[in-house]
Amino acid sequence: MPLLKLSCANCSAPLQIGEDLERFACSYCGTEQIVERSGGIVWLRKVETAIKAVQRGTDRTAAELALVRLDRELGEAQASKAALIHAANAQFAKANAHRSSIASISFMAAALLFPMVVGLFGRHIREGESLFVWAMVSLGTPLAVFYSIKAPTRVDIQQPLAEIDARIAQIEEDIGASRAILDAPS
């Protein structure tokens, strides 16, 4: 079996290795090495270097997979934030619409009941006073009803929004870290 004469990849000591040898430790410095063969050329590489190359490949694969997951999580978090804001706004609008509809009903009732009141008590009310009474009843009643109903308050969503924003910031930071791994030179 022929021996190959090579130099240690770490200390450059002269080495003689057999053709069938794949991995060994240098007898001078103890560095573990791998025998690489390609196209009739034989060279030595430190095991540590080979492991780092495998680690870089593994890190890149993990970063690529993480980006897919993180993009999905970011979209979900942003949709959750939008849904929370929309629900709070819808609840406020519904309560405000309810308040307005009750005031409108009271305005219609005042407008419809006023002629009956004037008809019943018309002879006791002078002409100028009836217009004033009509205006007070028609406008005052709905306003009184509107302001007597407690104005709706917006739902406090600051705590959930802060939590979602913190989650979005963390996801964006993780995306940046994954992109840095992918952008690093191989």
Which class best fits the helix and strand makeup?
alpha+beta
Output the helix-strand order. Answer: EEEEEHHH
Number of helices: 3
* Number of strand elements: 5
Tell me the β content: 5-15%
Shape: rod-shaped
User: How would you characterize the largest beta sheet?
Assistant: 3 strands, antiparallel
Distance linking N and C termini: 37 Å
Average pLDDT, to the nearest integer?
84
Q: Stretches where pLDDT falls below 50 for ≥5 residues? A: none
Rg from Cα: 41 Å
Task: Describe the SSE topology.
Elements: E1 3-7, E2 14-18, E3 23-25, E4 32-38, E5 41-46, H1 47-121, H2 127-148, H3 158-183
Antiparallel strand pairs: 1-2, 3-4, 4-5
3D structure, described in words:
- The chain is α+β, with helices and mostly antiparallel strands and 186 residues long.
- The protein has helices at residues 47-121, 127-148, 158-183; strands at 3-7, 14-18, 23-25, 32-38, 41-46.
- The strands form 2 sheets. A 3-stranded antiparallel beta sheet has the order 3-4-5. Strands 1-2 form a two-stranded antiparallel ribbon.
- Helix 1 packs antiparallel against helix 2.
- The mean pLDDT is 84.
